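#random but structural
TW: two for the price of one
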Amino acid sequence: MKNCLLLFLGLFLFACKQQPTSSAGKGAATAIPETKYSAYLFTYFTGNQKSEEAIRFALSNDGYNFRALNNNKPVISSAQISSTGGVRDPHILRGADGKTFYMVVTDMVSANGWSSNRAMVLLKSTDLINWASSVVNIQKQFPGQENLLRVWAPQTIYDPSAKKYMIYFSMKHGNDPDKIYYAYANKEFTGLETTPKQLFFSPNNGACIDGDIILKDGKYHLFFKTEGEGAGIKMAVSDKLTEGYVLQDKYLQQTKDPVEGSGVFKLNNGEGYILMYDVYTKGKYQFTKSQDLQNFSVIDQEVSMNFHPRHGTVLPITAQEAEALVTKWGSADDAMLSARGNGLKKINIALDTVNKKLTLPVKAGTNLSAFNPEFMLFPGVTINPQTAQNFTAGPINYNVTIAGKAPQTYQVVAKEAHNPALEGYYADPDVLYAEKTGKFYIYPTSDGFTGWSGTYFKTFSSTNLVDWQDEGVILDLPKDVSWAKRNAWAPCIIEKKINGQYKYFYYFTAAQKIGVAVADNPTGPFVDSGKPLIAAFPEGIKNGQQIDPDVFTDPKTQKSYLYWGNGYMAGAELNTDMVSLKPGTTKILTPDATFREGAYAFYRNGTYYFMWSEDDTRSPNYRVRYGTATSPLGKIKVPANNLVIAKNLEASIYGTGHNAVLQIPGKDEWYLVYHRFNYPKGITMGDAAGFNREVCIDKLEFNSDGSIKPVISTHEGIKAINLK
């Protein structure tokens, strides 16, 4: 009898463990114990090009760090499943049986217009790999839809009362706003068996799109995006799935930038929920965390992805499911690129796939005699060795095995790389040695934003030109500047001692105009003057842009000058207040036809040097040239051999330009501070390389006649200097 009871108890516990749950707890009546799931599947699309409007998959072990599967290529052909040739906004759900998966997507190609689609695609799978699909055209299937303009962002949830799968989505009819509707799918999940009904009724009848429902504590929480003034993510809550949603009228996104495509999932370890959304004007995702679905904090610093998703969703999965996905779409190359060890410059890891050689650049001071790359290990992946290794003695061989695939061996090298000097994406650097603090500062454009759309400036400090500390945002256009809110580009700065007190004058580009802000310290806070300093073309100029300021003080006269321009180079003397130009001093100084932008002036041994960037910052051939003059506003003489820095094919360094120059105080020792494409991915990114740049420093040297020696761009960079 005892054995029978034990057997019955065991069977009962086994049955309990098999009970199903929905995606991230979305809508199922019962739930599997959280320990069943140990990984996460992220499904997403990547952009508005037709090739980008397709379903892609990524994996994570912890819900924070994701790696794209299939080299970030589609896992399902849009042409085979859609009526338009493209799909967007994928949502994935685990069925109530725990083993069937449902996915719904917008059937749409954005190039055809934002009001061009009338359909969605329903997909069904039992293994996450093979999917059956059906197109559902709302306008064709249901009467009374003649003025339907679009069908967007469908999602699925299991209705335990109806024992059916409910699909909810937004539709726009004629001049009405977008509204969220719902309908039930048929048993086969190949079509809709009920006429769409409105699910949420906005109190102000405003537009609502991108609905996402999650069940918590017996209540359905509907996240959605509002449209129009003050657009963002809000939430409505109901005790019932299909009615009674009451708006909680506050915005939940933790950014001032436009957002869409919210997705909520519950962490497998029970430590709360993730709300993520697409910051679509910035080309990035933001992750936030909450315990109560009311208060959210940004956790972007804990998140990593080797891809740029657009509007997607995350599904908790088992180790067995993750292993099947890795077996199908994982690669040994990607496993090696997943290194996350402390001290790594992660965005600069480079893999030679032909020779199976991985190069791991590390920050200064990293202990390479006992360094562990810490590769990300998904189920089904084994990498050996797994302990710290001595990389000072040379390359280490690593063996990678993926379930169902032949083992592969890689040669791994780890070495210090001082370039890029700053961690992350930055460009257009200016550099300053501040007498007040005895430190060096770099003032760059904040990069990595699609179309150069950054809106804030930061600064970084160092005592040795190698170890740089992020000093944070020093000027935020939306918050600190009244006359411009966009395109924060190419700043420059100068230190002046006025009446015994140090002042810092910071010239910056905003909305293709040049402003000036003032501070008492090199790290701010900076106060904008309240109006642009330069907002129009100089006399005689009709084309180009008023951007890229450079400020210079003549050591012979102590007069200060400002230079600027894209397509032309202008210069003018600054008044002693440093926030206005001296009337009648503006001159056009364009040296020759190679001038594009990024003028920079400095003085050495009686000669005034001027540098500028040639070509386009999106071009691999972006480079720096120079000329000389006998005065700050004198005619610039261009030497025959005047190339300062250009691409280095041997090192795969491209797009070297928009520079500044630093002289070590009291010494004839000089450095070139410039930006380049991100290494190694930039050269593969097309035009996007032009806004995914990084700041580097290399030695600048002169010949005995004062001419500049060409600078060879390097990954190694410079050695730390000691001012004492």
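TW: number two ↓
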Amino acid sequence: MKQMLANSYLFGTNTPYIEALYDAYLSNPASVEPAWRDYFDKLGTLPGAGNYTGPDVAHYPVITSFAQRAKDGTLQASAHATTQSDAKQVKVLQLINAYRFLGNRWAQLDPLKRSERPAIPELEPSHYGFTEADLGQVFQTGSFAAVPDNATLREILEACRQTFCGTIGAEFMYLSDVGQKRWLQSKLEPLRATPAYSPEEKKRFLVQLTHAETLERYLHTKYVGQKRFSLEGGEALILAMDQLIRTAGTVGVQEMVIGMAHRGRLNVLVNTLGKQPSMLFDEFEGKKKQALSAGDVKYHMGYSSDVGTPGGPVHLTLAFNPSHLEIVNPVVAGSVYACQVRRGPEGKLQALPVLIHGDAAVAGQGVNQEMLNFSQTRGYGTGGTVHIVVNNQIGFTTSDLRDYRSSLYCTDIFKMVEAPIFHVNGDDPEAVALVTQIAMEFRQEFKKDVVIDIICFRKLGHNEQDEPMVTQPLMYKTIAQHPGTRKLYADKLAAQGVLGPNDADQMIKDYRAALDEGRHLIDPVISDYHSKFSIDWTPFIDVPYTEKCDTTVSKTELQRMSKRLTDIPANFTLHSRVQKIIDDRKAMGEGKLPVDWGMGENLAYATLVAAGYNIRVSGEDVGRGTFFHRHAALHDQNREKWDVGTYWPLQHIQENQGRFMCFDSVLSEEAVLAFEYGFATAAPNEMVVWEAQFGDFANGAQVVIDQFLSSGEAKWGRGCGLVLLLPHGYEGQGPEHSSARLERYMQLSAEFNWEVCVPSNAAQIYHLLRRQMLRKQRKPLIVMTPKSLLRHKDATSSIDELANGTFQTIIGETEKVDAKKVTRMITCAGKIYFDLLAARREKKIDNVVLVRVEQLYPFDDRKLADEMKKYPNLKELIWCQEEPLNQGAWYAKHHRLSELIKKGQTLNVVARPASASPAVGYAAKHTLQQKEVVNAALGIKE
């Protein structure tokens, strides 16, 4: 008997043989040879194998154990292992495995049939040495459930091709979880990826296709030349959405948030969410009530409804989305996460994100990688997203794959999170329905992402005014000859006897008649359903903008909060630097030390959670704080395990408090900020805070700021109370660590769309954060936060200022001056104030007063006017900023300041020279510029 090591076919790529035998043994021990059964019976004693039982065991230790024992010479091959027949058996299992891995490459996926089948030797029997004579030989099939345990090679080959090379091309063998692979195999292989639907179900599929196609053609003739980004060629999406919602309802989903770009959006609105066609027609005809100051085009609009499913009502929401395509995806994820948190332990099963992608965008836009990267993290994971790709094989204008993407499939990006991918021919409605059902069930079973890639085509151009023949002549000659998915399926059902000769045409006539009346033929919407988890936005709608709000909390209560914030559990060892901070905070609460910024911020959160508000803080390194200032999360120096080695004082303020969540995010700005925006729009009663590591890092999320935060209310009526903390200040740290690009937020400021503030001390940030939640208005808050000022003695406050004060939009002169001597008033914001103050003290200047503008937008010009009136001999008003002249707040504020100038007064600006870069990179040059700015503002000549 030779050692197993000598039998090379038991190693390397041939391990499927052992794995298949082991699968068969697990299912039925009597189905394998006695010698192998004896080995498997003893697996609990094999080194490295462990004591595995049940059908979903890990196989890698088994294979590793066999290999190790063979090398040690302690494992002998069974007598049957050396036969020629057994060698062929191994190759049969290799062939099956090859089809599982590569069969999708031969699948009949393209409705246009434009691609030649690639040469893949591993899928040919001859590659393994089989001849025609072998086709009738019987082999074991292992775990391949498409055939009996023993079948001829001909039967096995036929089953492989039908299962993996039909109109469904499944990719999932790269999954590392054996249980997930086996589950997917159990769903596809017994059916041979060929479902058997009832006549009623088939008619329902045809109805969905008919409604999808007819709506597009109706709009095309009724509103000639108007953009609508037609779904024609991809009508299977509507069928997939119907099947998804029906399946979701049966597996426990109660709420679904959908994100998609403009392609097919109008069709989804009407035929999936049940928007009345008459409402859509009014939008085409410009009859819609102009309720918003800006509004948006119809193919960006969102909608929500409640629809009935076999498993109960499901609330559907289609998220608003600009033309930035995939940017809505993390917004949807954030919105769903908020719903899940609200629903409690079952939230991830009850609320579902669904994202509809275009083939070019899903592969081309980096926000998808960012989102997938956080999809399984604790602060951002939603328990899996169902992704549907409307793959029209053309993107926007490109048809040459050399210019389209670098990967084989547009969906390859999803492999980074081991999401199974179902490629499916959009011309096979039943296959689309099958993979949609499997995908939905997989998501619920394993709580991870899953992908449906509907390969279809785009009948018209990028929009209805485009001429695709200019750039894709051959493709569009083929499309012109395609009868349409609905027609193909109707003919198939007629041939099967499912439909009568005129039934399909009658479906079209009935639906067109309903459209003529502006109504649905079949209305999926439940009008009287109300979920207990729905959010009432009524208290926050049409609330006039106000700055006034009582943010005071008694000194006694603040002292109690301070004690809770500094009461660390016994046997919890802090780092010495952190222990010093906690000790100082304890002294701050007792009034022995002034309150610094970090303590002021933490006290704001503490008082809010004590009042029952929920708080979520996220961003890169927010638990500790980039500048070692927040310490909302404390880490035991002797324990690393997350659940016992980390302590959040704000989660232990009192019983029955609000929830405090603090998550250090992945290294991403765009997707994370979009996520937080989505969360905030779904949770108006919660404070949601995103902090940039440095303020200018928000540059990477500019599309979120431009398209959602600043304009979401004007375009879509979407309120949002998201707080952005952006560290800002010129301290010689170079172009990327100085400026939060204040000018960008100032340029976007209009219509009371948000607030832009630069608080300069602990009391100000305390009252500002409390004001954000206590007022009945939900607008974004942009905060330019400090860096060096976090520990500056002049930026501290007394605990009395927290207890009795309020947020001051403008802080006038705080030192004693002779008002009659004052001839110059310097207005400024942020750190430059403290540089000006230090220089004025040093030079003993008595004719200049310093006024801090703490809220740059909306600008409190009346308060500044009152400050100016205090100085009867005032001759000059100066705006001083440390940013370059073409940046900062000057260009957004100079017209408001000029309106305050009286006869005999002048307005001037002092700033760094205009610059293409946000800041200089040379420390010496920075210091010189800073000194020049301060001296010029104060009138110091050197």
